[in-house]
TrEMBL record, chain A:
PROSITE patterns: LISH (PS50896), WD_REPEATS_1 (PS00678), WD_REPEATS_2 (PS50082), WD_REPEATS_REGION (PS50294). WD repeats lie at residues 411-445, 453-494, 495-536, 537-578, 579-613. It comes from the Eukaryota. It is found in: Nucleus. Signal peptide: none annotated. Residues 1-39, 258-299 are annotated as: Disordered. Residues 280-289 have a biased composition (Basic and acidic residues). CDD domains: TAF5_NTD2, WD40. It comes from Saccoglossus kowalevskii. Belongs to the WD repeat TAF5 family. The keyword Lipid metabolism does not apply. This is Transcription initiation factor TFIID subunit 5-like.
């Protein structure tokens, strides 16, 4: 209190005053009123200075400008030194606020507000004169949270009105509102203050460009705010994550016994009964209706063919042999190194059953390798197929041409780097996404291109087959994700909403949702059936390059350029964990088949294994009611192990059905 | 404050814009327009750069390539830059005089590339190799098989037993230490101990790192070579897996211009000879049709010989290396290169300027080495011929041994004739096959005669009786003195010695060098017998600078002035040798040969 009084006497010295602020912030919450006053004071000075600055620039129609930012006129006047000083004094005040200590909610909110306000201001400002823009930018730099720096760098390149029109970031800021979460108390204080002072400029600005998401409850601290901040347009709104998501797994279809027995007979007669019993118990668990699972008919799925059923039986049998991953029982890692790739490898993918690997190259080639002793074989030519007895039991084997057996095949057809590939669940087809705007479907039985899907107008960054086949989703530079069915040459759904490139995509294990990660630093979950965005997950401070769903469908892991892995609870749409340790961009994530471990790897040439069970365990105990108050324990060590390679960045990680970890990457000299 | 902002981005100045405008024919671009354009271009460039990061990120690289930028241009509807992108970075250069900055973009002369015969190595096929990164959560320490084995030190601590570590420590210490006795013990042990093999990677590592670290210290280098010798003579050790590193260390000593060779006082020549012999032994023992060691060595030596820019000591190394590998190597690699190499050597040898002395002495070393190699080859050829033609009566050269060297008074031509006869008789009988396959001795001889003249002819005679292995032995000073006092024909030096002693003016090492020469000095035939002063021997001090000048004056003088100069020179030399007692036997007539 005494300090605050003393401060009032120093009204004219904002710098000094704010230097003392951190002390003040440590006062207990019940002195909110005083703090509020303080905020007002600071706000006043800020706004005064900003206004002064604007006035000095002969902008009487500032309000109009801010309302319609395209209407301004370019100022004739160079900013005077006085202006500079004004601005610097105000800005240095912010700097002192930027001290990373515990801030109380009001304080941070105002800070966030000012930040965003200044973000808004920047657009007109930059157009006044390049001179002012540069100086403004320079001062701004230190104040902004570091995760907005990338935007600022981009913005700072914009110095002309004409450029504004075409700059994507500018358009984003102008067309969408920046969301700020605020507790009710803080909001009221802010509103009262603005009304009192008749800060019409700010009010308009607020209405025009900011969306204040008011929540009830205790104000958050700086750390809590930081956890979810970072996206291009601020934190996600609360109602955006309200929709119910059916994150449960689809009910496994009953597989008729005759087939199983056939399988058993083929595999070995010695212990069929034992296995059957086990599987029955396994199935028994699954048969309980999961309240969170979507109905089987929610989206039409292809009916199971015999071959799919057989595949499932095999998969299940493999599951029984699975090794549980834990701290005492870590998985082995087998590394497939690409030799002589010459910086050419752009993507790698391993099929679900770990039998094949596909790699996309910058020279537009796709190579497919077999990882098992079983060679890649093509179907015989037509005139030979004619002679085959179609009723034979081993007709599928007979149609294959032994003469074509080889370890790897090259698929040629794209005209640009292949940024992603994806195997169909039955491994008869392969999808590839390329810079040439197309997605291509290849047959792995004939090794030819079947379909070329055109729809994206810009490079396609990622593509993935649905776990049930038939559908696939592609994302690209055109900021959309598109859902396709293999038999249609037009997309079935276009998911748009991201404000920048969509860099990666994954299907939910139940095939009803897709998750996309974008350069706008958000991850979104989309409903395949309605095409709506059902979750917006904010928290990354840099573009997202990798997404993985946990095998039970409840959780999501995302990672990217900011070197951290974030773990999300899909049901609540909240951040539940943060894994820090990588030193460069993370390009691959993979959950172990039992969901207890997460593997991550990237261009820091290191595979890391994380104990995600621990993370989920910690969170699941306390019910998540308040999604705004996220506290992440930073100190806990979730790392199981870290396995560096010599000089090989990790492009793809894959757990086999028995929980052996496969990693791939090109050896880089 | 605004003006002092550091430039965050690359800027294009108005001047640049104007220059570009002029280059496309717009002379009168206004200042405003230029400024506007400059600003716009900067912005566009930045945008393109930002856009290209996206392509870099999706290629999962850290380094942006020109391809990335080109793609960004393409998608910004700008005409991309045509042609092939390169992985190599472009060099940004500046001229020294004018303030001009530019990208180095050399014109590539395609015909030259296509004609120079170097077939580019075909890029390897992209393959996938599987290995275990970790087994059940445990990552093995990386095992370095390549030459860059820095981590070996760590491995050592983990995998070796304490005793072995101790042994390794002691042995290396002993060998590099100053106590010669301990060193000998250590080396002996290395040569005979059967348990060294587990230490092998570390010892090899020790040597290969060592040669690079102590290349200023000949003594230490020699000791490291001693280790190599001990290891290759150890019957319990199989060096196969470490061959590459071992050979590269030895080759380093043979051919690298060592830091120690900068100082003319250092006798790095002996080290090179020694290392060459080691190499020959390694090659003999471990060459196989699988590793092609011999061929690889041939190629390495040939490459050095072809590269005339390399220092003479490297060439010397290559020559002694080839010589050690045997007559076959000389015949196949060295002599075919001679025609190309000779002019370069002659340029060095004929440059009499003062500044060239050091190089010239090196040149003489090389000359001597080639001569020796040529002789060795000829001798071998001759033997070969003789063995194929046992009944040939023309074995007189081999049977006119050093016991009667004085008999060799007949002239060069007659000797040539003599040889010619033998060759002729050979071809008449069953030499057809031989001649068909390779050059005969005569052919080689005539070819080499063009280079060496008479030095060669005599060598060919005597060499047959000499011990073919060049065995250095420490000879006591007394021996040398005896030798010098000895009869003329016994004290004749081979051609190499002549160069050796000449090359070591003012060096004390040279003395030692002279000592290491074989006792059975090969007799020397002089081209012009009138300059042969029988029984006249001179002891040349190797420390005297004056001798240098004297010698120079001798060289400069005409043949007639020699006899005049000879006397004071000889006297002085005698005097010096008496006082210093360090002497190199020098036969003056050899000087005249060079004149």
């Amino acid at each position: 209190m005494a300090e605050s009084l003393a401060d009032q006497s120093k009204d004219q010295h904002p710098v000094q005053q704010h230097v003392q602020r951190p002390h003040e912030e440590r006062t207990p919450p019940h002195v909110t009123v005083e703090t509020g006053k303080d905020v007002k004071k600071m706000d006043k000075q800020t706004l005064m200075a900003v206004l002064q600055f604007l006035k000095k620039n002969n902008l009487k129609d500032t309000v109009d400008i801010l309302k319609k930012e395209t209407n301004f006129s370019v100022s004739d006047e160079e900013p005077t030194t006085a202006t500079d000083q004004d601005v610097s004094s105000v800005l240095s005040a912010y700097t002192s606020e930027g001290d990373p200590s515990q801030y109380d909610d009001n304080y941070s909110n105002v800070l966030a507000f000012i930040e965003s306000a200044l973000d808004m201001y920047k657009s007109p400002q930059h157009c006044f004169s390049s001179h002012a823009a540069v100086s403004f930018f320079a001062k701004h730099f230190g104040i902004q949270e570091e995760y907005h720096q990338e935007d600022l760098v981009k913005l700072s390149t914009v110095t002309k009105k004409e450029h504004m029109k075409s700059n994507e970031l500018m358009i984003n800021f102008r067309s969408s509102k920046f969301t700020i979460k605020m507790s009710r108390d803080s909001y009221q204080l802010l509103k009262r203050y603005l009304n009192d002072k008749q800060q019409s400029v700010l009010l308009d600005l607020l209405q025009e460009h900011l969306y204040i998401d008011v929540f009830d409850g205790l104000p958050r601290n700086k750390q809590q705010i930081d956890a979810t901040a970072g996206a291009m347009t601020g934190a996600a709104r609360r109602e955006a994550n309200k929709t119910k998501v059916f994150y449960g797994l689809l009910k496994e279809p009953e597989i008729n016994l005759p087939l199983e027995e056939e399988e058993e007979g083929a595999e070995g007669e010695d212990k069929p009964k034992k296995k059957k019993v086990k599987r029955d118990s396994h199935m028994g668990k699954k048969n309980k209706p999961d309240p969170n699972a979507p109905a089987l008919s929610r989206i039409p799925l292809p009916s199971l063919r015999d071959i799919d059923k057989m595949e499932r039986v095999i998969a299940m049998r493999e599951t029984l042999k699975r090794i549980k991953v834990s701290a005492d029982n870590l998985p082995s890692i087998c590394f497939y190194t690409f030799l002589n790739a010459y910086q050419n490898l752009t993507s790698a993918e391993i099929s679900e059953d770990s039998s094949m690997m596909a790699a996309g190259f910058a020279d537009s080639l796709i190579r497919v390798w077999t990882l098992t002793p079983k060679k890649l074989r093509a179907v015989k030519p037509i005139h030979e197929l004619m002679n085959i007895d179609k009723e034979a039991d081993d007709v599928l084997e007979r149609i294959m041409d032994e003469r074509t057996a080889t370890d790897n095949r090259v698929l040629l057809g794209h005209s640009g780097p292949v940024y992603a590939t994806s195997f169909s669940p039955d491994r008869t087809m392969l999808l590839s996404a390329s810079e040439d705007c197309t997605v291509r479907l290849w047959s792995l039985q004939m090794f030819v291109n079947l379909v070329c899907y055109r729809g994206h107008n810009y490079p396609v960054w990622d593509v993935q087959f649905s776990p049930y086949g038939y559908y696939f989703v592609s994302v690209g530079h055109d900021r959309t994700a598109r859902l396709w069915a293999t038999e249609n040459h037009q997309p079935l759904r276009v998911f748009s909403g991201h404000l920048s490139d969509v860099d990666c995509v994954k299907f939910h294990p139940n095939s009803n949702y897709i998750a996309t990660g974008s350069s706008d630093r958000t991850c979104r979950l989309w409903d395949v059936s309605s095409g709506n965005c059902v979750r917006i997950l904010t928290g990354h401070k840099a573009p997202i390059h990798s997404i993985a769903f946990s095998p039970d469908g409840k959780h999501l892991a995302t990672a990217g350029v900011d070197k951290t892995v974030l773990l999300w609870d899909i049901g609540h749409g909240s951040l539940i964990g943060r894994l820090v340790g990588h030193t460069d961009t993370i390009y691959s994530l993979c959950f172990s088949r039992d969901g207890s471990t997460l593997a991550s790897g990237g261009i820091d040439n290191c595979v890391k294994l994380w104990d995600v069970n621990k993370v989920f365990g910690e969170v699941d105990t306390d019910e998540i009611t308040n999604t705004t108050h996220i506290t992440l324990s930073e100190n806990t060590n979730y790392l199981f192990g870290s396995y560096p390679s010599k000089s090989t960045p990790i492009h793809h990680l894959h757990f086999t059905r028995r929980n052996l970890l496969l990693a791939t990457g090109p050896f880089v000299i | 404050m605004g003006e002092e902002q550091p430039k965050r981005f690359a800027q294009i100045s108005r001047e640049s814009v104007k220059t570009y405008a002029e280059s496309v024919g717009i002379g009168d671009l206004s200042e405003d327009a230029a400024a506007m354009l400059a600003e716009d271009v900067c912005y566009r460039l930045r945008q393109a750069a930002q856009a290209s990061t996206q392509y870099m990120k999706h290629s999962k690289r850290r380094k942006m390539t020109s391809e990335d930028f080109n793609r960004a241009l393409k998608w910004m509807d700008v005409e991309p830059i045509y042609g092939y992108g390169s992985q190599d970075p472009m060099l940004f250069r500046t001229t020294k005089d004018a303030e001009l900055y530019f990208m180095e973009d050399k014109e590539i002369n395609l015909p030259e590339i296509s004609m120079d015969g170097k077939i580019p190595v075909c890029a390897g096929k992209t393959t996938v190799r599987a290995q275990w990164l970790a087994v059940e959560g445990v990552q093995k320490p990386p095992i370095q098989s390549g030459p860059q084995g820095k981590r070996n030190g760590q491995v050592q601590a983990q995998t070796l037993s304490e005793d072995l570590v101790k042994y390794h420590e002691n042995v290396t210490k002993a060998i590099l230490g100053n106590d010669e006795d301990i060193m000998k013990v250590a080396l002996d042990d290395l040569r005979t101990n059967s348990k060294v093999s587990s230490l092998l990677p570390y010892l090899i590592q020790f040597v290969s790192v060592g040669v690079k670290k102590v290349n200023h210290d000949l003594g230490q280098l020699t000791k490291l070579m001693h280790i190599v010798m001990s290891l290759i003579y150890n019957p319990f050790v199989y060096l196969g897996p470490y061959l590459k590193r071992l050979v590269s260390s030895v080759m380093y000593c043979i051919m690298e211009p060592l830091a120690a060779s900068i100082n003319p006082l250092n006798d790095h020549w002996t080290l090179r000879d020694y290392a060459a012999r080691l190499l020959a032994h390694i090659c003999k023992t471990y060459n196989s049709s699988v590793n092609h060691l011999k061929n690889q060595l041939y190629a390495a030596f040939q490459e050095v010989l072809l590269d005339h820019a390399r220092p003479l000591c490297s060439h010397y190394g290559a020559i002694v290396g080839l010589m050690a590998l045997g007559p076959k190597a000389i015949e196949d690699v060295l002599l075919p290169q001679l025609s190309g190499y000779w002019p370069t050597l002659m340029v060095v040898l004929e440059d009499t300027s003062l500044s060239n002395i050091q190089v010239k002495t090196d040149g003489h070393k090389v000359y001597g080495a080639i001569l020796l190699a040529a002789n060795k080859m000829l001798k071998y050829k001759q033997k070969e011929q003789l063995s194929t033609k046992q009944h040939s009566a023309s074995s007189s050269p081999s049977q006119s041994p050093a016991q009667e060297p004085t008999e060799f008074t007949f002239g060069t031509a007659s000797h040539l004739l003599h040889l010619g006869e033998s060759a002729g008789s050979l071809s008449q009988s069953d030499g057809y096959k031989l001649r068909h396959v390779k050059k005969s001795v005569l052919e080689w001889y005539t070819e080499l005669y063009e280079y060496f003249g008479d030095c060669l002819s005599l060598q060919l005679d005597t060499i047959t009786t000499c011990n073919p292995v060049y065995e250095p032995k420490l000879t006591s000073l007394a021996d040398i003195n005896n030798v010098t006092a000895c009869n003329e024909h016994e004290s004749r030096f081979k051609g190499e010695l002549r160069h050796r002693s000449r090359s070591t003016r003012g060096t004390s090492i040279a003395v030692k060098d002279a000592f290491t020469l074989p006792k059975n000095f090969r007799s020397m035939r002089v081209q012009k017998p009138q300059f042969l002063f029988k029984g006249f021997t001179v002891r040349a001090s190797t420390t005297s600078k004056r001798s240098l000048s004297k010698q120079k004056s001798i060289e400069a003088g005409s043949s007639s002035s020699i006899s005049i100069l000879m006397k004071p020179y000889g006297k002085m030399m005698n005097k010096i040798s008496m006082t210093h007692n360090i002497a190199v036997a020098r036969k003056l007539p050899t000087l005249s040969c060079i004149l």
